[in-house]
Design a protein that fits this description.
Mean pLDDT: 96
Structural class: mainly alpha
Distance between the termini: 12 Å
Shape: globular
Helix content: 55-70%
Length: 219
Amino acid sequence: MNAHGITAVLQGALSRYSYPSVVWDFAHQRERRLPSMREVETFIGERLVSRKPDRVKQGLANVLFWGHYSAGYCKHRVEDFLSRLTQDQLRHATDFLPKAEGPALRKLKSLGLPQFSQVSFLSKLRMFLDPSRYVVLDRRLARLRDAPSRTVFQSLTVYSGIPCSGRNEEIYARWCSLCCKWGQKLRVPAVDVERAVWQLLKEDQAKATSVVSSMEVTA
């Protein structure tokens, strides 16, 4: 597949991306549906880097609420997170999150935040800190590890989840870089490229594999 074909497929998939643009509004204690993912990124991102512990806690809880929303147990995960989060963990997160550099998955893991120990949610947290350069690597994308065509995920280590290891962080960094390159071609943030691939995987795994393999060759 050439660059023009890849661009067309990614643009089409992005137009069909349908993950709910939802957050939990702590001020009013209710779920809120926002107009688009841009607003979700702003809502969560501003809280994560606010340097105010209570707002950072709300931002972290919303990463979990949004990430687990389609599974139906988001409120339970938020409640569990809030009940187990310590003041020391929150203080360290409040200090570190605005200064995060690079993929930072292992550094984020070292904060010891409840439910932020594997790549899926660590990468969601990293994405919300800077969606223009960082993306998500979750279990759906990890399916490409076993695809017949070679992709960036070929050497990804996966067990019941995606462990946060040095190798997996390197693969995550390569995935972010690839999404950045195609984001520049499409004139969208890197995260939109990841969302387009995520949508393709939802619809047609063989086509998603072909696109990701071609993305690497023609980047």
